[in-house]
Predict the structure.
Amino acid sequence: TAEAGVPRVLRPGTRPLAFLLGFGPSSGFHDSYRYGYGNGCGKGNGNPYCGYGGWYGGYGAFKVTQEFMGHFSGNASGAALGILMNQEFAGSYFGLNIAPKFTYDIQIKRDLGLYISPHFSLGYHLSHYNYGYYNGFGYGAANYHAANIQTGVAVKLILDDRWLVWAQPLGFDITVGPGNYYCGNGVPGCGTYSRARYDFLLGGGVTF
């Protein structure tokens, strides 16, 4: 049979729950940071995260991600809901995302534990900065709060009906928040800001 041609270690997953851990660059699109009336990175040279693309500049970061998810099907395929958490690191910047996440794991071959996994999440974002002064204004260790949207497509391979490895070659991370992100808490007349990133993530996990 066709199933007999697939090694047992590569058979489809029968366990509905999974915990995933991953990491990789979250690259800021060049000049993607928009603040109210224009480019927030055009306000001076004091901000080390502006003016350049890549995972450090352009509001990029190195991202670590954790996810717990459960499938409605009772196995490792189909629709799943979970909780997503990210930590982001770039110099004196630290970011945190927490969000519910919807995933649909599409098994591409009946007897093979390989899945294409489009996903979407909408949740909370925290930005923490500790770079002191920017353009003559003291920001210190400031915290800013926003909404975060993440979407993309991952590839997952289940091993021995227990372990999995995964890669997300296509992922987008968009943050939208109130104007006090730039002006500082309590300063009036500030517009909404937005920031866009491209994520490339690799990781592993366990199913149960």
